[in-house]
Amino acid sequence: MTQITLVQGDITEQRVDAVVNAANSSLLGGGGVDGAIHRKGGPEILAECRRLRASHYGKGLPTGRAVATTAGRLPARWVVHTVGPVYRAEDYPQRAELLASCYRESLRVAVGLGARTVAFPAVSAGIFGWPLEDAARIALGAVAAAGPDLDEVRFVLFDAEAYAAFERVR
Ligand code: AR6
Predict the structure, then answer these.
(1) Per-residue pLDDT, 90
(2) Which of 28, 55, 58, 99 gets the highest tally of CB atoms within 10 A of its CB?
(3) Which of 150, 144, 80, 146 lies closest to 115, judged by CA?
């Protein structure tokens, strides 16, 4: 049985096999989790993202999809980059389905690599504007529905407010 855990903290510090990045389609970096992962993980991650863009994703990684790279200098082994939907750019129910797809696809990629432990941030709940509690409900629901064969799926919530939102809907 996969343990689902919630912690308050910084995703770049997690000792897990794979950490998930709340990226954008360009895969070339940004703010929030994405900025922190590239800053702390070092240039190897961006170099691999550039290669992926050139080889597979000329138009960018579509929303709801996921792809893995090295984790560079992070304690994790892999970074799984996923692109959450911008809250106001999509209508319900499409946007909820796209957000759920981020979790499903990230888990599929991580399991495919042989990961046993995976850490997620609250995808789309920062710069992309998703209300925290709704994002938490979709995140937890999607992981439960996927029923991955892992030891642990850890949600790493950056602040007390995000942690509380996940606790409430768990
Ligand atoms: N560890 C864990 N959670 C964090 C960290 C961290 N180090 N830093 C921020 N958060 P966001 P999005 C929380 O904005 O909404 C980037 O520019 C944050 O408080 O990182 O999917 C990308 O390139 C929030 O709860 O991701 C995209 O353009 C959650 O992580 C865009 O932002 C997600 O916030 C993606 O926006």
Answers:
(1) 77
(2) 99
(3) 150
**pLDDT over threshold 90, residue 86:** yes
Q: In this predicted model, what pLDDT tens digit does every residue of 136-166 receive, in sequence order? A: 999 999 999 999 999 999 999 999 999 999 9
Summarize pLDDT for 28-49 with one digit per residue, the tens. 999 999 999 999 999 999 999 9
pTM, to two decimals: 0.98
- CA–CA distance, 105 with 82 (Å, rounded to integer): 8
Residues 80, 93: Cα–Cα separation, whole Å? 25
Tracing tokens 């920062």 back to the chain, one arrives at: 126
CB of 36 closer than 6 A to ligand 1? yes
CB 52 within 8 A of CB 67: yes
34 catalytic residue (yes or no): yes
- Contact of 135 with 124, CB cutoff 8 Å: yes
Q: 64 is written with which tokens?
A: 């709801």
What is the rounded CA–CA span in Å between residue 152 and residue 87?
Answer: 28
Percent helix, strand and coil across the chain, each rounded to 5?
A: 45, 20, 35
Cα of 165 vs centre of ligand 1, distance in Å, is: 16
* Active-site pick, 17, 34, 91, 159: 34
Please determine, for residue 93, whether its predicted confidence score (pLDDT) is greater than 80.
Answer: yes
Q: Which of 124, 104, 120 is closest to 154 using CA atoms?
A: 120
